[in-house]
Amino acid sequence: MRNKKLTIFIIAGEVSGDVLGARIMREMPDVRFVGVGGENMIAAGLHSLFPMSDLSVMGVAEVVAHARTLTRRINQTVGAILDVQPDIILTIDSPGFARSVIKKIRKSSAGRALVANGLRFHHVVAPQVWAWRAGRAKKYAQTFDKLYAFFDFEVPYFTKYGLDTIAVGHPIADGLVGRNASKHGGEKLITLVPGSRMSEVKRLMPLFRDVAHKLVASGYDYKFAIPTVETTAEFVRDSIREWDVRPELVSADKRYDLYSRTYIAVVTSGTVSAELAMLHIPTAVVYKMNPITTWLVRQVIRIKWVSLVNILLNRCVYPEFLGRDARTENVLGAVRQMALPAVRETMIAELKSADELWLRPDGVPAKLIAESLMDSVRSK
């Protein structure tokens, strides 16, 4: 019989992980949660050790620039774990930070004692080893005790190395697939999504400004909106003061209401493109990285596309403009094409054909993960 309340140390490093983390927490109301998260996990009862934005870094050059902060946060997190002595550590995405923390725990004498006493490491979001850096699957097996993947096809990549892996479905699919938000009511609203990481936002806001200005200058009767997240909202507000076209700003927790009004979206590569695909919204995907990061990625990537709906369907449904291709004229051309009725109807039909690929018949991700965590504790 347990003499203490079950304690889970939970870490999320970006907005999508924060949303899923909050859902998992709400599935486990009798559990004590400690760790790192954003506004959603804080609302669910978490006292975050430090701002989640400190972990929202992507790209080689960006990580180097923030190395001192990341090192300090790694050490702070390890110290908190050794002090709290949780039953399980649950990390959601942010694999670099998660693996650094776990490596330090396993190397310390106090950490080894916790592991010997049953501490286990669970991780949510399988790396896309089928796309690039296949060797990560083996490294994950050496780091984590359990992995929660989104899709069945991902599981064998990890189980072949002995890592206990289960598919739980895509976390954002529950409640989104089937809404058919593409019935927007006729408003010509273009939603621009620059991302949740500051490095992404700084690179994409000038592109979005140019696209908005040139569409209006060309005579299109469009309005514009930008969903904002806590990590970049102030920067976005400051940026649009210089725009001739003033977009509507909508907080991230209201983004689905915004998407229901969206005619066309132009978004950064990431979770948002999956959300919009589930909602059947015509979208163009753009992404700009530091030139060094761009070059490195092109050397190792093994897939044609970055948008998950394109990958799942194995064809280009959402037009993608990455790196040097993320130019104003390319995005303008895509928007003009998606405004054509025939092109628009074909794209929406393609998006609908992917609906069954997002969901699992045996439950929703947060509940499946919560049940698995409890099973792991009972088996100790």
Keywords:
single chain, 380 residues, alpha/beta, six-stranded parallel sheet, 46% helix, 15% strand, globular
Written description of the protein model:
This protein has 380 residues and is α/β, with parallel strands linked by helices. Helix content is 46%, strand content 15%. The chain contains 18 helices and twelve strands. The strands form two sheets. The chain has a six-stranded parallel β-sheet with strand order 2-1-3-4-5-6, with helices on both faces. Strands 9-8-7-10-11-12 form a six-stranded parallel β-sheet, with helices on both faces. The longest helix has 20 residues, at 198-217. The chain is globular. The termini are close together. 43% of the residues are buried. Mean pLDDT is 88; it is low at 58-63.
Average pLDDT, all residues: 88
From the alpha carbons, calculate the radius of gyration and give it in angstroms. Answer: 21 Å
Q: Report strand order across the widest sheet.
A: 2-1-3-4-5-6
Q: Which word captures the global form? A: globular
Record field, number of beta strands: 12
Helical stretch tally = 18
Structural class: alpha/beta
Largest sheet: 6 strands, parallel
In helices, the fraction of residues equals 40-55%
Taken as a percent bin, the fraction of beta residues is 15-25%
Question: Residue ranges: pLDDT <50 for 5 or more in a row?
Answer: 58-63
Q: Please report the distance between the alpha carbons of the first and last residues.
A: 11 Å
Instruction: Encode the helix/strand succession as letters.
Output: EHEHHHEHHEHEHEEHEHEHEHEHHEHHHH
